[in-house]
Amino acid sequence: GWNSLVPPCLAQTIKYDRSGNIVWSHGYPGDPTKPDCESWGIALDPWGNVYVAGHVTGAFGVDCLLVKYPHDYQQGEAPEWVRTYDGGVGHDQNWCIAVDSDGFVYVTGYSLQINAGVQSQDIITIKYDGQGNEVWKRLYDGPASSNQQAFAIAVDPASKNVFVTGSSRVVSAAVPTDMIKIMYNDQWTQQWARTYDEIGIEQ
User: Fold this and answer.
1) pLDDT tens digits, one per residue of 75-88
2) Which H/E stretch holds residue 203?
3) Do residues 180 and 203 touch, judged by C-beta distance below 8 A?
4) Looking at the whole model, is its pTM more than 0.70?
5) Which of 27, 39, 36, 28 is nearest to 7 (CA)?
6) What gap in Å lies between CA 20 and CA 28, rounded to an integer?
7) By the 8 A CB rule, do 98 and 155 touch?
8) Which residues contact 5 (CB under 8 A, 6 or more apart)?
9) Could you tell me the pLDDT band of residue 120, with boundaries at 50, 70 and 90?
10) Burial 11-31 (b: 16+ CB within 10 A, else e)
């Protein structure tokens, strides 16, 4: 989550033991001279390393944020690594995160892009290895080149295919959003995108 009691806003991560006692707590970036952060998703890999996804205010807008805490993290230490993504236009946001059985990390949300000469949100999905190296990145722009966002992500344990779900303005910016699901294979190729529409707003 985030802690805004004392500016700037911190991306706050807390570990509890089984009795509900705090083991450690860390607010990223932990420096009042640094910009605001918020965290929106958390996941563990098979070795107990902790990954937190959200956003951080950058020099030219808001960027996607991914923070790794090692399994043996101790109170007062810095995170093992931090990665950000700047789409180059404006607001970029990680909403959710998944980790597969091999320790690869997947984040998704949206990135402001220029489509058909107009600013709009594309679904951004990025895969990292456990060392924080980017493996692949994909942007999805819907048929109307309007706003899309992803709100959930899952990885098939066997095939490592990636499934992203969210909302998409399929017709135009003036028409309510539809549900959307996108599948990528383990070679980061989009296999399909499907939308679901009834009367009103779906997401």
Assistant:
1) 999 999 999 998 88
2) none
3) no
4) yes
5) 36
6) 22
7) yes
8) none
9) confident
10) bbbeeeeeeeeeeeebbbbee
167: number of Cβ within 10 Å: 23
- Residues whose CB falls within 8 Å of the CB of residue 183, separated by 6 or more in sequence, listed in order: 161, 162, 163, 164, 190, 191, 192, 193
**What is the Cα–Cα distance from 70 to 79, expressed in whole angstroms?**
7
pLDDT tens-digit readout, 185-203: 988 899 998 886 655 555 5
- Phi first, then psi: give them for residue 140, nearest 5 degrees: -120, 120
Angle at 137 between CA 113 and CA 44, to 5 degrees: 120
Lookup: tokens for 92: 């970029």
Query: How far apart, in whole angstroms, are the C-alpha atoms of residue 29 and residue 11?
Result: 7
